[in-house]
Amino acid sequence: MTVQVWLAIILFALMVAVGGKKGARSFVALFLNTGVLLLTIIMMNDPDMNPIILTLIACVLISCISLFYISEINIKTVTAFISTIVTTCALIFFILELTDAAMIQGFSEDETEEIGAFSLYVGVDFVKIGASMIIMSTIGAIIDVTIAISSPMQEMAYHNPTISRKDLFRSGISIGRDILGTSANTLFFAFFGGYMGLLIWFKDLSYSLGDIVNSKVFTSEMIFIGSAGLGVALAIPVTSAITAYYLVKARQRDKYQFPVPDESQADN
Q1: Strands (E), the chain
Q2: Cα–Cα distance between 37 and 161 in angstroms, integer?
């Protein structure tokens, strides 16, 4: 067997050992999400298809697989799903304008040698393709943040039935502040880990700091990181507000109305 197969077997064994049935579903979800991405990329090659619409549909499918297939349908996954879609829709308009203004779409001058033998008249809108790339690289981090906030907020509502919507929202923001720093660092180091070879290449070519900062490859990746960080930061108040609203509304429908201990009986 190849190294990839052995790694997949080890990963599956560890995920099942740690996560049980959820771990097995998480492993299957990796392949399902990969299939969604590949299908989206293939459909983007059609000039008649709108990459932004395809990206939004892919984000919905990836969110459903990552949330509902792994953790089933419940109030925390529903609120995380709604928060993910709202954040993505709000972010995509900003990313479209940013991609167009920064002119990071298409290929850079460092890639001209590799694509010299191919025709550049591919008939697709690279501004929208660039925006789709940023959204695709952001959706995973947004899903992680939304479920990481909605899940403990549900536990708070369960163990504290009298908590107000305002206090729930503040708790979600407090949780999000702790997540924000680690998520931003994860995105930052993921860039340097994935592009370590590019940075070494820049050094070997004796690029100055100005040349590196102004290169399209470096600029586009920094914009990717900034947009992903913006999506994570935006997801925190959105998830906190939506989850607090739905938890209180569900409690009012007696779904989360748990009996409050009677202090007089506790003393007896």
Answers
A1: none
A2: 41
Buried b (16+ CB within 10 A) or exposed e, 116-126: eeeeeeeeebb
Instruction: Please work out, in degrees rounded to the nearest 5, the angle formed at the alpha carbon of residue 63 by the alpha carbons of 60 and 66.
Output: 150
Residues 6+ apart with CB under 8 A from 176: 145, 149, 235, 236, 237, 239, 240
CA dist 41 and 54 (Å) reads 9
Amino acid identity, position 118: F
Instruction: Report which of 252, 232, 256, 184 is spatially closest to residue 83, judged by C-alpha positions.
Output: 232
- Segment 232-240 shows an average pLDDT of 90
Interatomic CA distance for residues 256 and 187, integer angstroms: 36
User: What's the token pair of residue 127?
Assistant: 């501004």
The model's pLDDT over 98-150, given as tens digits with 9 standing for 90+, comes to 777 776 665 555 555 556 566 666 667 777 777 788 888 888 888 888 998 99
Compute the mean pLDDT over every residue in the chain, rounded to the nearest whole number: 79
* Residue whose structure tokens are 């000039």: 47
What's the pLDDT score for residue 237?
Answer: 92
CA 244 – CA 165 distance, rounded (Å) = 5
Q: Which amino acid is at 71?
A: S
**pLDDT given for residue 268 in this prediction:** 42
At residue 265 the predicted structure's pLDDT band, cuts being 50, 70 and 90, is: very low
Cα distance between residue 83 and residue 172, in whole Å: 13
